Amino acid sequence: MDWFTAPGYWLGRLIFQRALAGVYLVAFAGAALQFRALIGANGMLPVPRYVRHVPFRRAPSLFQLHYSDRFFAACAWTGALLAAALAAGAGDRVPLGAAMAVWALLWVLYLSIVNVGQTWYSFGWESLLLEAGFLAVFLGNARAGPPVLVLWLLRWVVFRVEFGAGLIKMRGDACWRKLTCLYFHHETQPMPGPLSWFFHHLPKPVHRVECAANHVTQLVVPVLLFAPQPVASYAAAAIVATQLWLVLSGNFAWLNWLTITLALPAVDFGVFTADPAVGAPPEAASRTGPLWYVVLVCAVTALVLVLSRHPVVNMISRRQVMNRSFDPLHLVNAYGAFGTVGRIREEVVVEGTADRAPREDGAWREYGFKGKPGEVRRIPRQFAPYHLRLDWLMWFAALSPAYARDWFGPFVERLLAGDRDTLRLIRHNPFPDAPPRFVRARLYRYRFTTWRELRETGAWWHRTLVREYLPATRLAKEPGSRAARAPRRGGGPSEPE
Length: 497
Prior knowledge:
This protein is an alpha+beta fold. It has 19 helices and six strands. Residues 478-482 and 490-497 have low confidence and may be disordered.
């Protein structure tokens, strides 16, 4: 069955599998290190409470069957160990069926986490990792040639990621059509990186070129992934280059790295070298694999094509939505990003005081977060592909208190209680000896400083107070005392970017 395998893509498959396992490793390690405060039994949005109200059919997960913090940690660290083994090449040293079983177990474990992760796991790159991980199960290993059908399905994923993002930009904010969105984006993006300040201060003509190049890469280049070689390889290379630009300019967890990973199986590496030995397939790369494997790959391909109806209808709709899963297994999803771009940046600053009574001029001390802007003289750090979930949700909280309604009150309660797991999620605890008596939150407007301001003050940010976000709050210890509660309502967009 020569039609079934594509021996020339063995190297692209190998690199894809190693890189995808690396992304899985980061995802599982992040889950293991952050879950107790976020979704643990005593977390802000506990899994046990969630699964009591959500049936298995809506959120299939191992944790629907049993949950304890110890069991969750075991699942997350097991996923990390399996991912590390696959990244080291273990999948190519075992029989085909065993390798597929390991990839399938990784997918089940991460699906189980995402489906109980609630708002902490509501990002598009969670579904993207699950979709890529599901297809990786059927990509085979070194004992069989890369299946053509799965290679095409991977290109179909990259196409939807890029083309969906391009369409939602053109249909959304007018600044994308005017090529002016990047006048603001580097400053207002969810979590700037160490180079974002410099990207923001590029000349406006360069920003316009950035916008135009983005449109070409997202609306034209993805179509070329389905062209014959070498065109498809050059298209994949253009996508990789654009994603690396995004890696340099901000922190988007593993979205950019995963998109790069997904583009690699479309590359014929012999295109980029004059050496015929580069990319030459080993003998095993020409093997079709057993009949059960061929039948299974064909069945999965048919399933994906059927499930693709909803994402396609969404893409061509004038009411296109982004980052939407159409089934609880996250098999075929809709993607997109930044249909609107904020013109101003607002940040929620959380403070505490040990004073017996909260006064405006009291001794308020600020909590420092790891990734989100806070201290104005602290340059943004690089964290991607690691995902700082609390920091990301704090950005949404600043857009509108509605996005923080479920978790911000519990977060403040845990600061007031000095909860160790919660304090591990932040960079600086200004109350190392005893928790504060009161905690409050205030909304500030942030902007990048100018070159002159940076030289004179050493500050990367300038901030001004906008309004109170959460009034001074303490733990309820007696009747009539105020417990931590959700932030006050304020203006905000109808949906996140």
